[in-house]
Write a structure and sequence with these properties.
This protein has 415 residues and is mainly β. It has helices at 21-27, 383-390, and strands at residues 15-16, 39-40, 52-61, 64-66, 69-72, 77-79, 85-86, 96-101, 110-118, 122-130, 135-138, 141-144, 150-151, 167-174, 179-187, 194-199, 201-204, 209-212, 215-218, 236-241, 250-257, 270-283, 286-289, 292-295, 313-320, 326-333, 345-355, 360-363, 366-369, 375-377, 393-400, 407-414.
């Protein structure tokens, strides 16, 4: 998600999933990987050319939906935290991304994306699981699972003791030191290295160690030129680690600053949408999200301002001014009270694998259940079979199921 100013020069001779049906359908999976080999697409426009920026959770497909905006992905690339190209199939429900895009049409909530930047908070081995508290510990970070956390299909056991020892990739929002609220968790068994994003604490420049949460990290093996000159307590960094500790320390093999800011910050007037936890709080009108200052003095609060408190997960829409401050027009709570605390999800496309007994089908490779109370527009449940046979599109709206693996439909629109 974060763009490193040193490496963000868009070396995007990207390989990614083919355009058209194959790309869009494959791109929208909930499985966190797989699919056909990526085909070449035109290089994405450099982030500096973008006129809008979003940072948040993928909440739907039929294009890629972030912050309620449908981003056309037909000319967009996908890159990881180090700007290495990825296939569109790597994007899943709950993935945290930043999006560089053209102007947002607010009347239709659409925009043309130029780049999706995908980045997790931690990748490492699960040390422990607390099923009562709904938490797991990964690389010394306490990861909280809530009603909106998506489990990729690779997490077959759910949040059980069976996860201990598994290597997982966690997307989410970082709050207090060592605390992450997960938006998506997927297995990463083939990982050759671990990595962690967080805030530096307990920096010892003599021993060349620091901590992120409960993880003690040594950077002694790095050349001086590979250590950020701004390394200090409070700096947000991303660190790559060996998979085996040396004594009580994790050994860093790469280290860089990782503050998430809109592309082109400093130019001003960037249409911006950011989702994250409030990390610095003065008042509901003045706070920070992961180092981004927010001026909400003229903002509206659709969910009220009482919930705007330290650590709250919020969505902020506005513009980034020339000083890099996000001037908010609207501030909302991330976990919507109107949806029972769950994040609203939506899918758009042709359905497959209809099972009328189980009352499920697949859409964008996500399993959809229509067994509950569903409102239908321009059709009924009986029309699902007809639409599957004809390949016609449906729009599905709902929330994540209790097992966090499928979408429970509350509304289906026949197109």
């Amino acid at each position: 998600m974060t763009r490193n100013p040193v490496i963000s020069s868009m070396r995007l001779a990207l390989t990614t999933t083919a355009l058209g049906l194959a790309a869009v359908v494959a791109a929208c999976g909930g499985g966190g990987g797989g699919g056909s080999p990526a085909a070449a697409i035109p290089a994405a426009v450099a982030p500096s050319a973008a006129t809008s920026y979003a940072q948040g959770v993928v909440s739907g497909f039929g294009s890629v939906i972030v912050g309620g905006v449908r981003y056309d992905d037909s000319k967009a690339g996908v890159v990881d935290a180090d700007d290495n190209p990825l296939p569109l199939t790597k994007l899943g429900l709950g993935s945290m991304v930043t999006v560089d895009a053209g102007p947002v049409d607010r009347s239709s909530s659409t925009a043309a994306a130029t780049r999706f930047h995908l980045s997790d908070e931690v990748l490492g081995q699960v040390a422990s699981v607390d099923t009562t508290a709904q938490t797991l510990v990964v690389l010394g970070q306490t990861v909280t699972v809530n009603a909106s956390t998506v489990f990729a299909s690779s997490i077959t056991s759910g949040l059980t003791q069976a996860l201990v020892g598994t290597v997982v990739e966690v997307h989410g929002t970082a709050g207090a030191a060592g605390q992450i609220t997960a938006t998506r968790i997927e297995a990463a068994a083939a990982a050759s290295s671990y990595h962690l994003r967080g805030t530096v604490a307990a920096l010892d420049t003599t021993a060349k160690t620091f901590s992120i949460g409960a993880a003690s990290i040594s950077y002694a093996s790095l050349a001086a030129a590979d250590v950020p000159g701004t390394l200090a307590n409070g700096l947000i960094v991303r660190v790559k680690l060996n998979t085996v500790q040396s004594g009580s320390n994790w050994v860093a093999t790469a280290l860089r600053g990782d503050k998430r800011v809109p592309a082109g910050s400093g130019a001003g007037s960037t249409d911006t949408h950011i989702e994250g936890a409030i990390t610095v709080f003065t008042s509901s009108a003045a706070f920070e999200i992961g180092g981004v200052k927010v001026d909400a003095s003229a903002a509206t609060f659709p969910d009220g301002s009482a919930g705007i408190v330290p650590g709250a997960r919020v969505e902020v829409t506005g513009t980034t001014n020339a000083s890099g401050t996000l001037v908010a027009a609207k501030v909302e709570l991330d976990d919507k009270p109107s949806a029972g605390g769950k994040r609203p999800l939506e899918l758009h496309g042709a359905l497959t694998a209809l099972d009328t007994s189980a009352k499920t089908f697949l859409l964008r490779t996500v399993t959809v259940s229509y067994s509950g109370t569903v409102a239908y527009t321009n059709g009924t449940a009986a029309d699902l079979a007809t639409y599957q046979a004809s390949g016609k599109n449906v729009d599905v709206y709902g929330v994540l199921s209790s097992d966090r693996k499928q979408l429970e439909a509350s509304r289906i629109d026949f197109k």
